[in-house]
Amino acid sequence: MAQQNEPLTSWLDIDPASDFSLANLPFGVISTSASPNPHVGVAVGSYVLDMKELACHPEFYRVFDFIAEHGDVFSKPTLNAFAALGRPIHKQTRSRLQDVLSAGNSTYESFLRKDDYWISRIVVPAKSVKLHLPVEIGDYTDFYAGYHHAFHVGCMFRGPDNALQPNYTHLPVGYHGRASSVVVSGTTVRRPRGQILPQPPVEGQPKQPITAPCRRLDFELEFGCIIATPNALGDGVSVGDAEDHIFGYVLLNDWSARDIQTWEYIPLGPFNSKNFATSISPWVILADALEPFRTEALENKTEVQEYLKGEDKAVFDINLEVELKTSDGNSSTITRVNAKNLLWSFPQMIAHHTIGGCPMRTGDLLGSGTISGPGESERGSLLEMSNGGKKDVAVGSGAVRRFLEDGDTVVIRGFAGTGSGRVGFGECAGTIAAAK
Ligand SMILES: *[C@@H]1O[C@H](CO)[C@@H](O)[C@H](O)[C@H]1NC(C)=O
Ligand SMILES: *[C@@H]1O[C@H](CO)[C@@H](O)[C@H](O)[C@H]1NC(C)=O
Ligand SMILES: *[C@@H]1O[C@H](CO)[C@@H](O)[C@H](O)[C@H]1NC(C)=O
Ligand SMILES: CC(=O)N[C@H]1CO[C@H](CO)[C@@H](O)[C@@H]1O
């Protein structure tokens, strides 16, 4: 049984439906009109704690004594310096913030709760804050651990008897993505141009590509993991130690140009079809905040290699959903699926990634791969919903899509738990702009 969070109430007014309960306290990078240089913030209810201001409080190094020796990590423009402090410090910081903000704890009353001057400087309305990319990402790797997605796509291309390659259940398949095009939620995504085959290819004639705007633009619903503690070149990370290397989690949309992908992906995998944009949510949920929601991954009936054998409860019970908003103002939820629908966990992906000695660095981003469930309403991409672009997908008020149109906005949301124990991600959103 997963341990349950003790219900925590705050002296701050927190809406019980908020993703950002005291049990959460995710970290991000913010700026405000008063403080325009990006720096660290923590989301709580409809507020953001300005951590740079918090660190200016004359009592800061007494209350957060365990940070003192590490210098100033909260006025930095990314979370990398804080992430690099390692998981025990992240845990202590979150727990001390809970004590400071908790209604049931009077130890630090005079620090913030009873000090209007510092409250007005530190506790700012979330609406007044601009959110930035939370980490400087050195490398981005995208896996393919969503078993049902891999199966559905395999059925489309190879039929149900041959849907998954034999190696799929032996190793977490992945590709090296492009960190430079990872953007924060809210950034516009321009429809990419590239080489595509005009549809349909003519039987018996050589395939002749054209260069044109992508016609089959898709989203991919994914879960992302950010690395805290690096490993040296040549040193692997065991599946058992991998948890200690994890900073936290984000929602991720791996935008995909399906027509570019079909033409380019054999023999070395996706390239331009994936490197024009990947969106992530702005708030990083610390690994410790998701501990109560551990659950079992999908059963892998294959006897896996020793280095991949890990804990039973290694994925998370998180409700994910995708909303599609069309430019006429209509919107509908087109997918609801649980994040536990993975064959491989992040510790297994990390162990596999580093088995040959590949170094992971602080701020590296790993994607889970598209998460779909077994049911019709649980598909994590339009490719699956439209059965490879062959059927219409209803997106509300009579509108249909097979792939994304210019002006469409895709919003991914995710949360675990309920009430004062709710731990949510907020939004990972992006709107499609016309090709250049
Ligand atoms: C109150 O905060 C202090 C300091 O962090 C902590 O030691 C104590 O356990 C907390 N008390 C309760 C009731 O949570
Ligand atoms: C996986 O297995 C298939 C079928 O045996 C093989 O063709 C392929 O090269 C293997 N590797 C990958 C990465 O798919
Ligand atoms: C939604 O769709 C309907 C029917 O297509 C349309 O009449 C309406 O203007 C759209 N926009 C909003 C905001 O409802
Ligand atoms: C993700 C997952 O649960 N994978 C399992 C696959 O099966 C092996 C046993 O052969 C387990 O150790 C893995 O955890």
Task: Specify the CATH homologous superfamily of the largest domain.
Answer: Fumarylacetoacetase-like, C-terminal domain
CATH architecture of the largest domain, by name, is Alpha-Beta Complex
- CATH topology title of the largest domain: Fumarylacetoacetate hydrolase, domain 2
Helix percent band: 10-25%
What does this entry look like structurally?
The strands form seven sheets. Strands 6, 7, 8, 13, 14, 16, 17 and 22 form an eight-stranded mixed sheet that branches. The radius of gyration is 22 Å and the shape is globular. With 436 residues, it is of the alpha+beta class. The protein contains ten helices and 26 strands. Bound molecules: 2-acetamido-2-deoxy-beta-D-glucopyranose (NAG) (4 copies). Residues 328-330, 397-398 line the site of one 2-acetamido-2-deoxy-beta-D-glucopyranose. Residues 297, 300, 303-304, 309-310, 343-345 line the site of one 2-acetamido-2-deoxy-beta-D-glucopyranose (NAG). Its EC number is 3.7.1.2. Belongs to the FAH family. This is Fumarylacetoacetase. Residues 163-429 form the Fumarylacetoacetase-like C-terminal domain.
